[in-house]
Amino acid sequence: MINIKNIDLDEIKLNKDLDYLFHELLKFSTKEWSYFEFPFNNQSLRIGSILDKIDKIIYENNKSESIYNEEFQLSVYKTILPFFKYSMNYTDIGSFLIFFHVNLHFLKLDIAELVKIHNLNEQFKDFSKSLADFFKSLNVPTLDIKNNRSFEFYIKIIKTINTYETESDTSLLRLINMDETTYFTINSKLVFTNELFSLILFFKNLDFDLFVKTMMESTNLFSSILFIKSCTIEELLMILQNNTINNEFIVFPSLKKILDKEYDKMSKNRNLVKNILSHAYKQDSELFKKLIQIFDRNMLFNESIGLLIKEDVEIDMAFIINQFEISYFSQENDYRRKLLENYNRDEDRYFELLKICFVNRREHLDNLLNNDKTCIFLNYALTNLSNFILLYYLDCMDKTKLLTEINKTLKSIKYLNSEWFESITSYRNKFYVHYSNLLILSCAYHYNDIHDNKTSELFKELILDKTFEKMLYESDYTSLSTIKKVFL
Length: 488
Prior knowledge:
This protein is mostly helical. The chain has helices at 16-25, 30-33, 42-60, 67-89, 93-107, 111-117, 121-136, 152-162, 194-206, 208-216, 221-229, 233-242, 248-259, 263-266, 270-283, 285-295, 299-311, 317-321, 332-337, 348-369, 378-382, 386-395, 399-414, 424-447, 453-463, 466-473, 478-487, and strands spanning 36-37, 191-192. A two-stranded antiparallel sheet has the order 1-2.
C-alpha cells in the first residue's frame, strides 16, 4: 500500500487511459451498478467489460516490485482521487463505486485516513447517510437476458422477490443463500458483484448503529436480504435480541439465516424464533402463511411454532396447523414431531393440537376417497401426521374406545369386498385408507398393552382372506408381520 501523506500530486502523471474508463463508468446510474454477475446478463456485461479493461491496465502495469511499480500506483491514486472527492462533496454513490472498485482490488487505502488527509470529515458524515438511503431502498436487479429459456428459473426467483407482498407461491425463496458471501442463490448461479457486497460490509464497519437502523427500515425484501447476508449469525442474533421487529421485510431473511444453520447450534434460540413468528402472525396473516410454506421442513421452525401455539392461547391454533401441507413423505414426520417438543401430555393445548391434526387427516383422506382419479398407496394414507394420530389414539381415547375403533376398522377391511365400487381405483383407495388406520391403531394397541380375544379373532378372519393378502403384496407386505405380532 502506498504512502499518501505529504504527496505532491503536481509531480505525478495522470493515467489518461484509466481516466477515460473511469469517466465511461460515470455514464451508468447507481441502480445499474447493482447487478447480478450472471452468464448472458447484458447489464453485467456492459459495466463488467469496462471494469475488466481497468483491471487489465492495472495488472499489466503492476507486475514487478520496481520503482516504476510505485510510480504507477501513485498515478492511479492521482487519477482516482477526484472521483473520491466528488463522491464526498456531492454525496455521489456512483463516483464512490468507481473509486471503491479500484481501492478494493488495487490501492487498498484506508478510507478513514483518506478522509482525514483531505479534510472531508463533515462531508463523510453526510455521505454515510447517503449510503444508508442507497441501501435502504435498493431494489432487486433485473436480469437483462434475451431469448434464453435456460435462465427462466432464475428470472422466476427474482420475480418472486419483487412480488413478495402479493405472490402466493414463495417456495422459491428457499433457494436464497443467506451466508456472508456474494452468492445470492444456493447453487451459486446468481452472484452479487464484489463491489456491491463489499460496499455494504464497508457500511457495516463504518457505522454499525446506522447500519442496524437502516436495516430495520429496509423498504423491500431484496434490500433486507442484502443487509442480513452481510451480518454474521452472531451479529444478527444480537440485533434481533436488542430491537423490536416492525418491518415485515426483515422477518423472512432473518429466519432464513438462522434456520439454515445446524439445528444443534441454533436450538437455544427457539424463543427468539418464536418471538419473530409471533410478530409475523400478529402483523400479517398472509406473511405468516408464506413463512410456513417456506420453512415447513425445518426442525427449529416446527419447534418454535409449537412453542408459539403452546404459550399464546389467543393464537388460532387451527389456523396455523391448517397451513402445514399434509404430504406423503415419511421423513417429514421428524419435522412435525418437533411441534410437540415442549408440550406435556396432560396439557389442554396438547389435546387441542392432536384433535386438530386428527380431524385434518380424516378430512384429507375423505377428499382422496371422493376422487377416484387419485390412486392412493400406503404412504399416501399414512401421511406426515401419523405420529399425531398415534398420540391421539393413545392420549385422547380410553382403552374401550380404542378397541371399538380397532374392531370397526378390522370389519371395514373384512367387508370391503361386499361393497360396490365404481372402479378398481376406488376399491384400492379405500383399502389403503383403512389399512393405514389399522397400522397406527395396532401401535396404540401395543403401547397400551391390550389383549382382546374378540380383536384377535377378527384379525385371524381377515388374514385368511386372499384378497387382503394380495393387496398387501402390492404395497407393503412386511407391515403385516408386525401387525400379526400385535394382534395374535
